[in-house]
Amino acid sequence: MKILVTGGAGFIASHIVDAYISGGHDVFIIDNFSTGRRENVNLKATLIEMDINDEKVDELFKKEKFDILNHHAAQMNVRFSVDNPCFDANTNILGSLNLYESAKNYAVKKIIFASSGGAIYGEQDCFPADEKHPTNPCSPYGIAKLAIEKYLFYYKEVYGIDHVAFRYANVYGPRQNPHGEAGVVAIFINKMLLGNQPVINGDGLNTRDYIFVSDVVKANLLALNDNVSGIYNVATGIEHDVNYIFKKLKELTKSDCNEIHAEPKAGEQRRSVCSYNKINKHHGWEPTVSLDDGLRDTVDYFKKNFK
Ligand SMILES: NC(=O)c1ccc[n+]([C@@H]2O[C@H](COP(=O)([O-])OP(=O)(O)OC[C@H]3O[C@@H](n4cnc5c(N)ncnc54)[C@H](O)[C@@H]3O)[C@@H](O)[C@H]2O)c1
User: Fold this and answer.
1) Where are the alpha helices (DSSP H) in 65-183?
2) What CATH number belongs to 172-208+238-272+289-306?
3) What percent of the chain has pLDDT over 90?
4) Which among 5, 6, 12 is the best mutation to test ligand 1's pocket, defined by most ligand atoms within 8 Å of the CB?
5) Are 265 and 202 contacting, i.e. CB atoms less than 8 angstroms apart?
6) Where are the alpha helices (DSSP H) in the chain?
7) Distance from the CA of 111 to the center of ligand 1, in angstroms?
């Protein structure tokens, strides 16, 4: 199949590109390298350095006639979205619509979209949250993700374009950017390996559902099948707090840093954990990498690539 992967120089989508290429697909990447890195780009993919908002996107779709659009490019920093809601909406809503209009114009069969469980559900009423949990996003980033899911429904109803929206939990693993504000695993590992002091915001008892990137890739492979469509959580159903992540990484990196806590960041969700029952029941997907194994593999990657 001919697949366009947006954000293919970034953390998650670069792994998806690798898997699609290994599967024999013809893969194109659009990325503007705002957070993506050239060394993540698979040399067998066709790289188009372009912003998803660019009007040339339409020409690309016209020329290449993609079967599938896998859309991962995004402004993905929740705190940045709070300070810059217009920038966030411009990339995450208007950029997505720019792609979806071209997908409609040139008969793309399916759109696969990287949504977010944590950001869309907001503070949860029940744990873990399934896909029927109320959606109460409390950041511009989460609102944009939800809006784009709704647009996918519209494109299916009106134009017959199939879709899969994956509501990811907290994804971690090799290639995650350790210099952003999000991605506590990468940030802590990088600091520990460099002998710097990581800081835990608040009491460290905030929980997240940490999912290893290879399990996310498996879901994106599954999404290529005709019988897979709709909205699915991609999660482990297990929550861990930041103090656990800190202790485990300290052990794995053999760091002698101290456990230091700072003031909590305003607006941080207390608990976030999602159920994967739906995708398991419908399509047999389940997480296969335990947190301890995933953290060990991620530390190994950073040791080889950042020291
Ligand atoms: N990392 C997580 O835990 C997580 C959780 C839920 C959802 N997601 C979603 O998964 C997707 C990938 O996230 P990631 O963690 O790999 O982030 P990332 O920042 O590593 O990847 C995003 C990629 O998109 C590119 N990009 C950004 N804006 C662009 C634009 N306007 N035009 C073209 N390219 C652009 C960046 O250069 C980068 O390569 C995002 O949509 C994010 O919202 C991530």
Assistant:
1) 78-83, 85-89, 96-105, 117-121, 140-159
2) 3.90.25.10
3) 96
4) 12
5) yes
6) 11-22, 56-64, 78-83, 85-89, 96-105, 117-121, 140-159, 184-194, 213-222, 242-253, 277-283, 291-306
7) 16
Q: Which amino acid is at 111?
A: I
Q: What is the pLDDT of residues 289-305, one digit of tens each?
A: 999 999 999 999 999 99
158: left (phi over 0), alpha (psi -120 to 50) or beta: alpha
Helix pair angle (96-105, 140-159), 10° resolution: 10
For residue 257, count CB atoms less than 10 angstroms from its CB and return exposed for 0-12, middle for 13-18, buried for 19 or more. middle
Paired tokens of 84:
């810059």
Q: What is the 8-class DSSP label of residue 146?
A: H
What is the reported pTM?
A: 0.98
Catalytic: which of 20, 100, 121, 141?
141
Cα 100 from chain centre: 19
Ligand 1 binding site (Cβ under 6 Å of any ligand atom): 7, 9-13, 30-36, 51-53, 72-76, 91, 95, 114, 116, 168, 170-171, 177
CA-closest candidate to residue 172, choices 278, 249, 112, 254 = 249
Measured in Å, residue 114 CA sits from the centre of ligand 1 at 8
Residue ranges per structural domain of the chain: 2-171+212-234, 172-208+238-272+289-306
pLDDT in tens, 160-204: 999 999 999 999 999 999 987 789 999 999 999 999 999 999 999
- Is residue 159 annotated as part of the catalytic site, yes or no? no
CATH superfamily for domain 2-171+212-234:
NAD(P)-binding Rossmann-like Domain (3.40.50.720)
Three-state DSSP state, 200: strand
